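Entry 14. Structure prediction run on the chain below.
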Amino acid sequence: MLKMVWRYGLAIVTVAAALVLTMLLEQYTDITILFYAAVVVSAWFGGMGPGLLAVILSGVSIDYFFVAPLYTLRLGPKPISFLVVFGVLAMLTSWMSTKRQQAEAGLRQARDELEMRVQERTKELRQANETLRERETELTHVTRVMTLGELTASIAHEVNQPLAAIVTNGNACLRWLGGATPNLPEAQRAVERIINDGYRASEVISRIRSLVKKAPPRNDAVDLNEVIIEVLALAQNEAQRNRVSLQRQLKHDLPRVRGDRVQLQQVVLNLIMNGLEAIARSKDGARELTVSSDVDQTNNVVIAVRDSGEGLDSANVDHVFDAFYTTKPEGMGMGLAISRTIIESHGGRLWAGPNSPKGAVFQFSLSTNAERAP
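Output returned:
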């Protein structure tokens, strides 16, 4: 109710203001200009009804105060035509003002609704991206655990070696101490070997735990030569089982890179395991797998895993990194896809090509001076 009173009251006030100003400025301006303005203001802020009221009040005011005979509503033919023209133009002005105001109000409403939808969509996309990152992390972890499952024999061998050495040195220590004259220096050295082997077993278990556990990504300074040595130790027994000779060509004083050590271990481990499987399927020729590290001309660290296996089909070389693409009957086709995702998240590049004279080479490069990509 109050809003309606305000709207129609606005029409009355604006027409009254136009009347007063026109009477004061009659000799300086046309009598209709300010009344048109009153109609526009009334229609713009009040709507069509107040605009029409302003048209009627303006016509009456002009007739009564400015058209002869003054102070009466009686008109001759000429003043009637003038007021009809004014009324038509005023109503048209009122209608156009109302429509424009309604159009702008509709545009504002549409803009507000669009902004709201954009905000809602942005929120949904943000949540979807967070969910996708969580799923990628879970998939990376599952793939890592599955790879370690394939290396069960190698892991058991790595742990068994220091444990067997501990038992051997323990028995030797007992013999040195159990003699008629205890040989304390030899017993001491045996105990020292036991301690060293204990540390060795602990390091193997620690490496396995770090690979298996699910932890948030880190951004540390990583020595890729150390990563390669650790992974080769885990894969040694698998290589022996497949009669593959593991070779390493590591650059001395290799610069460190920034990234997650466990994820980079996963990439190197996956490339080595793929190479061993490729060689295992090969029936003839050399059975060698070489892991090398170097620095290219742009100061990037380059890691290469070369095998003497069956090699890559030139027609499918571009698809080996696609998710779910695999040439192994028992494969999932996720190892290389995840490896490329890990390397790219570190700001690097992973690619594949033919090895000479036989097999395939998988390489990745990482910058030595760039922060890890978000």
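Residues 243 and 322 are 30 Å apart (CA to CA).
Filed with the rest of this week's runs.
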